[in-house]
Design brief:
The protein is mainly α and 218 residues long. Helix content is 71%, strand content 0%.
Length: 218
């Protein structure tokens, strides 16, 4: 008899559990859920898959920052910098309030994207926005790095700034940026060339190539 009651109790638990789960409604992912999974795919180098999830996040909530952020960075990796500019810029047109944990990603992304399309004036503008809002007194541990790929950091943005300045003929500024990069990476190199001369400008170009390779290999 006792065994029969135990069996009845077990069947009741199974019945209740089945009813409970069957009665739950469909789980509808939020824009944050969609974006979070997009970043999971991004970090796994599935950029096509990430694009799909970020697209859904933007469709779900046209004001959600991380959907646009994800689309901007993903389209850059997929070598569509014009689309990166579109998504980064669209969000900043929706919400221009500076929030360090959010806006720095957009400024850096726009600097990279404009550099990729050869718009050096705009690339320099966003580099300067970036550095005007970074607190260089905090120490390297608190300086910006891209949270979904920490190898991309403020030094890369400084390199974009130096390249843009060189292309725009702002050689004095370029030399200052180059020296700041050497300082940031712990090098004792100090560049001091006559940038009014062709040889001096060629030397700046050589330093830019050297720094780019050094940063890529680090």
């Amino acid at each position: 008899m006792k065994q029969f009651k135990n069996i009845q109790s077990l069947l009741w638990i199974i019945f209740c559990t089945t009813i409970f789960f069957n009665c739950r409604g469909n789980i509808i992912p939020s824009e944050e859920d969609l974006s979070d999974y997009g970043w999971t795919l991004y970090e796994a180098n599935d950029f096509v898959g990430a694009r799909s999830w970020f697209t859904d996040a933007v469709k779900k909530d046209a004001n959600y920052y991380d959907g646009y952020n994800g689309m901007g960075w993903t389209m850059g990796i997929l070598r569509q910098p014009d689309s990166s500019i579109h998504y980064f810029g669209k969000y900043l047109s929706i919400d221009s309030v500076f929030v360090r944990e959010v806006t720095m990603d957009f400024y850096a992304g726009l600097a990279f994207a404009y550099n990729a399309v050869g718009n050096d004036t705009s690339a320099r503008i966003y580099c300067n926005y970036f550095f005007s809002n970074i607190n260089l007194l905090e120490g390297e541990a608190n300086l910006w790095s891209f949270s979904h790929n920490v190898k991309t950091n403020y030094i890369d943005v400084r390199l974009i700034l130096a390249i843009s300045e060189f292309r725009l003929g702002l050689f004095e500024n370029c030399q200052e940026s180059i020296n700041q990069i050497y300082k940031d990476i712990g090098s004792t190199v100090v560049v001091d060339v006559d940038y009014d001369m062709v040889q001096g400008r060629a030397s700046l170009a050589d330093h830019l190539v050297t720094l780019q390779k050094s940063i890529q290999d680090s």
